[in-house]
Amino acid sequence: MPRNIPYFLSILALVTSTITMPAAQAKVIDAGNYNFPLTNPFEATIATTPDVLWPLGLPANRNIDQDDYELNLRPEREFSLPDNFWAVRKLKYRIARQPGPAPLIFLIAGTGSNYASSTMDFLKKVFYRDGYHVVQLSSPTSYDFMVGASRHATPGYSPEDARDLYAVMKAVREQQANLAVTDFNLLGYSLGGLDAAFVSQLDDAEKAFAFKRVLLLNPPVNLQTSVNNLDSLVQTEVKGVNDDQTFYDLIFTKLATFFRAKGHIQMDAAMLYDFQQSPQSLSNEELAMLIGTVFRFSAADIVFTSDLLNRRGGIVPPETIITESSSLTPYFQASLRCNFACYIDRQLLPFWRQRFGGTDMTQLIHDSSLYALADYLQASPKIGVMTNADDLILGPGDLRFLRKTLGQRLTVYPHGGHLGNLNYRVNVGDMLEFFHDHE
Hints:
Layout (H helix, E strand, L loop, with lengths): L4 H13 L9 E2 L12 H7 L18 E6 L19 E6 L5 E7 L9 H12 L3 E5 L5 H6 L9 H18 L5 E9 L1 H16 L7 E4 L5 H11 L13 H16 L6 H8 L7 H27 L18 H8 L3 H17 L4 H7 L6 H6 L3 E6 L9 H9 L3 E4 L11 H12 L3
């Protein structure tokens, strides 16, 4: 695994270089005409879009007719789950309703995120303002989905994750049978974008929704490439981090100095943007380590939850009885030592081989990536992709594949990192235009 940032920046250079190839009519945004202010992919990924650059007029939550609901999809787990999972034994989702008949859009969250995350809340406001009923769904990799909806609680094999999501969507429609829906649409971001592509293919076969438009925001193209890119970030060598000072000590010291000079503590995207303009700003190496750490925590949740629910014994001994008073610290520490690549190798791959008769890792990764859907994506005019040339989860050849496969249904922004520009009003305008194209 690479241990320094120059290697990773060289990967980004290879990714970005593909944008100069002949564009099969893809919409490639010129850097000179794109005013998103964060051109460093690490800064953009962490700080995201300053709220002054968000679209204007988004409704406040108090002005949205919305409620959270529960689905009892895995009743067989009711008495087998540890006590500390009581809150997620039923899967929750959120729906925002228009006052009359309207199109409905399902939103699928990214890696480890649940339906109520800030990104989901933002997208809800965007589409609610535009006249949609909006349903917010957790990622199949979030612990609440794994407990309350997943049949196998071993996420990562995209066709099966799509089946779990599709079952949830059908259950939502049944529970909301009185809602007047004119047509159905689908949007997923990050890993949720990959999920959305597989759900769309499944729906074309089963036709429960006949999705009108499907949009993938910053999806991984090759799952293994994305996992390796993010896993490698946590191994970055950071100046000043040694046996006497941890990475977290370093970050805390910089934040404390910044807040002391500012006079108050404020944790939001605007603060992170200001922080990066200050003398305490994080270096590329520090930013990379921070992104990798966040991803490692998401992976740890998946590792722990999948192992526990399936009683595999890799993290929690099968005979262990966990109660609300049990300390989870030893299990969490063990989970943190197993990154996403480790999870695939120790849990997902053996499960896939046993359940579906798969052979090697290469086949599993291919079957779970957009490459497996190349013919479908090329032939389906309703599917679009929006991504960034410097997205941290892309690798060499990924943009070329998207350009060749999607043509004019692909939009590539010159910078923004991974999802950093999702809230930018220009990007939001392009999202809405995509859904309006076929009206």
